[in-house]
C-alpha cells in the first residue's frame, strides 16, 4: 500500500511538472520583443502628436521623454503608442522606457514644419496623396515632397495641406516635406504595383500568381477581382499573391484593391478548358515521345500539366494545338490527364509496354489499300506480327522494328487497327476509316451536270448541252434513260422518244421519280420521269431563267430564278416566293426542318442559309480561302458548286476551288472538312484521290456521295464511312 501511494505521488508530481513546463513553454512562446519600428512626424511644435509603432510597447508602464523632458502618453497598445510633444521640450532624442528597458526612438526637431497625417497611406504610381500638417507655405520657394526619397509633383499647397502625386517606381518609404531648409519626415507610404500575372489565360479554378509590391500581409486585406468579378486570395508570400479565378469571370484586367486603393494589372483572358483530339501512341516504353493533338493548350510549356496514370510527364514542346510529351518511368496502365492552367480534361488510357502504334499512313482507304503502320516493338519477322482492321486480319507485306506495311482486307470496315506480337497488343491512336474515292465510269461526255441516285444505287446524270439524261448502274454500265442526244424540243413520251430543252437540274423522290427543270424556246418547265422512263409535265410556262430544283419531305418542289430568288411549287400547282434575293442555278438544298440553302453568286465563296420556319437568314462564309470554323469565320474557295443534305441532316458543300467536300453541322453552325482532295484524276484514299470538278452531287442510303466530274468525263464515288 505504501509503495502504491509512493507511485501515485510520483505520477502526480510528474504530471504537475509537465503542466508547469508546458506553461513555461507557452509563456516563452508568447514573449514579444520590445522594439520600435517607426515614428512620425519627426518635427513640429509643442503639442504635436507623435505616433510610435513597434512591438511589446505595452509591456510595462510607458515613459517617453523628448531630450530629457517627459511627455504625455495619450494611448498605448502593444504595437502603437501616441504621445504629445511636451511644452518645454527641446530638439533632440526621443527616449522610450517600459520600466525595465529603454530605447532611442529617434530625433525630434522643434519647428513650425510638421507632417501630421497622409491620406491615402498606400497606392500605386499616380495616386494623389494629401499631406496634413503645418508650416508648408513659404515666400521663398514652394514646398518639396519626397516619397521614399523620390521627388513627387506638388499639385496644390497651403500652410496646412499639400497635394502630391506619387511618382513611378517610388517604392515604399517615408513621406518627407522640405520648406525653407527645414525638413519633416512623416508616416511611411506603402507603394503598390502589380508587375505581372501568371498565367495570363485560364478559366474558373485557375490558380493565378500576382507579382508586385505593397501587398497587405493578411490575405483578406487584399481584394482581387478579374474584370470586376471578385476572387479568393489563398496565399500571400512577400511580393506575391496567389488567387483562384472565380466562377463567372470574363476577359479583362486583373486588379488588386488594398485599403480602398485599386491597382490595375495586366489583362487575364478567359480560355475554355482544353480538348483532346488525338493521343499517339496509346502504348509504348518510357522515354518515348507522345503527341497530344487538340485545342486550347497553352503555348507556355509549364502551363500544361500532363500525367499518365497519375505519373507526371515532361512537356517538351507546346503549341495551342499540339503537346509533345516525354513518357515517364513507372506509368503502368492508366488514363492520360491534361490540365491547362488548372482546367483538366481526361484522355484515353495508356499502357506502358514495348509495343506501340504512333500513326497510320494513310488513315483512310478502301479494301486493298496499302497502309504503313509506324510505331515501336514490331517484329522484323512478318509472321510474328498480327494486324487487324476492326477485327479483320490484314496481309503484312513488309516488317521492321518500327514500321509495318500492310494491305487492308477485303471485308474492311471503319474501326481501330491493332497489332499483336506474342502476348502484347497495341491499338492505333485513331480509327482507320473506310473512306476513299472510286470511279464508277469515265465514259461520260464533257457536258455532264446534274446527278441523282435511286434506291437501288442507279445514277441519273444530265447532259447540259445535248439535252438528254443517262442512267449509270452501280457496275458502271451507261445507257440513255430519257431524251435523244442533240434533239432539242419539248415533247413528253417514253425514254428516247421524249425531247428536252437545256436541262438545269434534277431531283428524285422516294418512289424513284426524277424531276427535271429545263429551259427552252417556250420558257421554263418542270417535268417528271417515272422509273419506267415515262415523261410528263408538272409545271410549264415558267420564266426562262429557271435553274436548280429540290424537293422537301412534303412533296413540295423548289426552284431558283436568277433575279427573283426561290419559289415553292405546291402539288396543286400554286407558286410561292420563299426567298427574294438573287439565286444562282447551283444545286439548292432543303433540310427536314425547312432550312433552305442557296448560292447567291456563283463567283463568291459564300451562300445563304434561310430558315423558312423563322425567316432567319444567315450568310455562310466571308472571303476566299480555306478554313474550317463557324459560319462567319469559315472560308471557301471562289466557287460553291453544289449544296446537298446528307443522311444525318448535315449540309455538304462542294468547295470547287479547294477541291474539297465541306460539311456544315446545322446543330452547331460549325463548318468542317469531309474530304480534302487535290486536282487531277486518281482514285484511292481521301488524301491520295484527285478530282477535276464537282459539277453536282448526290447521296445514297449508305451515305456515299456521287459526283459528276465533267473535267474527267467521269462519275466518281466518295465513300465517307
Automatic annotation (TrEMBL):
According to the entry, every stretch annotated as the IPT/TIG domain falls at 36-110, 114-191, 193-262, 274-343, 357-422
Q: Which controlled-vocabulary keywords does the entry list?
A: Signal
Record bears the keyword Signal: yes
Give a yes or no for keyword Signal in this entry. yes
Q: CDD domains from the entry?
A: IPT_PCSR
List the Pfam families: TIG
Going by the entry's taxonomy, the superkingdom of the source organism is recorded as Bacteria
The molecule here is called: IPT/TIG domain-containing protein
- Organism annotation: Chitinophaga fulva
Amino acid at each position: 500500500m505504501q509503495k502504491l501511494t509512493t507511485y501515485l505521488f510520483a505520477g502526480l508530481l510528474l504530471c504537475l511538472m509537465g503542466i508547469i513546463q508546458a506553461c513555461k513553454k507557452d509563456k516563452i512562446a508568447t514573449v514579444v520583443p520590445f522594439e520600435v519600428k517607426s515614428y512620425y512626424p519627426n518635427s513640429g511644435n509643442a503639442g504635436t502628436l507623435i505616433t510610435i509603432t513597434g512591438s511589446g510597447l505595452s509591456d510595462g508602464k510607458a515613459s517617453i521623454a523628448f531630450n530629457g523632458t517627459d511627455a504625455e502618453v495619450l494611448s498605448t497598445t502593444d504595437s502603437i503608442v501616441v504621445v504629445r510633444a511636451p511644452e518645454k521640450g527641446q530638439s533632440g532624442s526621443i527616449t522610450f522606457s517600459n520600466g525595465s528597458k529603454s530605447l532611442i526612438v529617434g530625433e525630434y526637431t522643434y519647428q513650425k514644419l510638421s507632417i501630421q497625417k497622409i491620406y491615402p497611406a498606400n497606392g500605386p504610381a499616380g495616386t494623389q496623396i494629401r499631406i496634413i500638417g503645418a508650416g508648408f507655405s513659404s515666400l521663398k520657394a514652394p514646398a518639396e515632397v519626397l516619397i521614399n526619397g523620390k521627388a513627387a509633383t506638388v499639385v496644390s499647397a497651403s500652410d496646412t495641406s499639400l497635394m502630391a502625386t506619387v511618382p513611378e517606381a517610388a517604392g515604399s518609404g517615408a513621406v518627407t516635406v522640405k520648406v525653407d531648409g527645414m525638413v519633416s519626415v512623416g508616416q511611411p507610404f506603402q507603394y503598390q504595383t502589380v508587375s505581372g500575372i501568371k498565367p495570363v489565360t485560364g478559366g474558373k479554378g485557375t490558380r493565378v500568381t500576382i507579382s508586385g509590391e505593397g501587398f497587405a500581409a493578411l490575405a483578406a486585406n487584399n481584394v482581387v477581382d478579374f474584370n470586376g468579378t471578385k476572387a479568393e486570395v489563398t496565399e500571400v508570400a512577400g511580393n506575391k499573391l496567389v488567387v483562384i479565378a472565380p466562377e463567372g469571370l470574363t476577359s479583362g484586367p486583373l486588379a488588386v484593391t488594398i485599403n480602398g486603393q485599386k491597382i490595375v494589372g495586366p489583362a487575364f483572358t478567359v480560355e475554355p478548358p482544353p480538348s483532346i483530339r488525338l493521343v499517339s501512341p496509346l502504348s509504348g516504353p518510357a522515354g518515348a515521345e507522345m503527341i497530344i493533338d487538340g485545342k486550347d493548350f497553352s503555348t507556355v510549356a509549364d502551363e500544361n500539366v500532363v500525367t499518365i496514370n497519375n505519373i507526371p510527364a515532361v512537356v517538351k514542346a507546346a503549341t495551342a494545338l499540339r503537346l509533345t510529351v516525354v513518357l515517364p518511368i513507372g506509368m503502368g496502365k492508366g488514363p492520360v490527364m491534361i490540365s491547362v492552367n488548372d482546367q483538366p480534361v481526361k484522355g484515353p488510357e495508356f499502357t506502358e509496354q514495348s509495343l506501340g502504334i504512333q500513326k497510320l499512313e494513310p488513315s483512310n482507304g478502301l479494301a486493298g489499300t496499302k497502309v504503313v503502320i509506324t510505331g515501336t516493338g514490331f517484329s522484323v519477322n512478318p509472321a510474328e506480327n498480327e494486324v487487324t482492321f476492326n477485327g479483320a486480319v490484314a496481309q503484312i507485306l513488309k516488317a521492321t522494328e518500327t514500321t509495318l506495311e500492310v494491305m487492308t482486307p477485303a471485308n474492311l470496315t471503319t474501326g481501330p487497327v491493332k497489332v499483336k506480337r506474342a502476348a502484347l497488343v497495341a491499338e492505333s491512336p485513331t480509327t482507320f476509316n473506310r473512306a476513299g474515292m472510286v470511279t464508277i465510269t469515265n465514259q461520260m461526255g464533257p457536258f455532264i451536270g446534274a446527278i441523282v441516285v435511286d434506291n437501288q444505287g442507279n445514277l441519273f446524270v444530265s447532259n447540259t448541252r445535248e439535252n438528254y439524261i443517262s442512267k449509270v448502274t452501280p457496275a458502271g454500265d451507261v445507257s440513255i434513260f430519257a431524251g435523244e442526244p442533240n434533239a432539242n424540243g419539248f415533247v413528253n413520251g417514253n425514254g428516247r422518244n421524249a425531247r428536252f430543252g437545256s436541262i438545269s437540274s434534277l431531283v428524285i423522290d422516294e418512289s424513284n421519280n426524277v424531276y427535271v427543270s429545263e429551259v427552252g424556246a417556250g420558257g421554263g418547265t418542270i417535268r417528271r420521269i417515272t422509273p419506267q422512263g415515262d415523261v410528263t409535265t408538272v409545271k410549264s410556262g415558267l420564266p426562262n431563267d429557271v435553274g436548280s430544283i429540290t424537293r422537301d419531305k412534303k412533296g413540295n418542289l423548289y426552284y431558283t430564278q436568277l433575279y427573283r430568288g426561290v419559289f415553292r411549287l405546291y402539288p396543286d400547282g400554286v407558286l410561292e416566293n420563299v426567298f427574294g434575293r438573287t439565286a444562282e442555278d447551283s444545286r439548292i438544298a432543303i433540310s427536314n426542318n425547312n432550312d433552305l440553302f442557296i448560292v447567291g453568286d456563283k463567283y463568291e465563296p459564300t451562300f445563304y442559309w434561310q430558315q423558312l420556319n423563322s425567316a432567319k437568314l444567315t450568310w455562310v462564309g466571308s472571303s476566299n480561302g480555306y478554313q474550317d470554323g463557324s459560319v462567319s469565320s469559315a472560308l471557301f474557295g471562289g466557287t460553291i458548286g453544289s449544296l446537298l443534305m446528307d443522311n444525318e441532316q448535315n449540309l455538304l458543300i462542294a468547295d470547287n476551288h479547294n477541291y474539297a467536300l465541306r460539311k456544315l453541322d446545322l446543330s452547331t453552325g460549325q463548318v468542317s472538312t469531309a474530304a480534302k482532295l487535290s486536282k487531277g484524276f486518281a482514285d484511292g484514299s481521301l488524301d491520295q484521290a484527285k478530282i477535276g470538278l464537282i459539277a453536282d452531287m448526290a447521296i445514297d442510303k449508305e451515305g456515299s456521295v456521287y459526283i459528276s466530274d465533267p473535267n474527267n468525263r467521269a462519275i466518281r464515288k466518295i465513300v465517307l464511312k
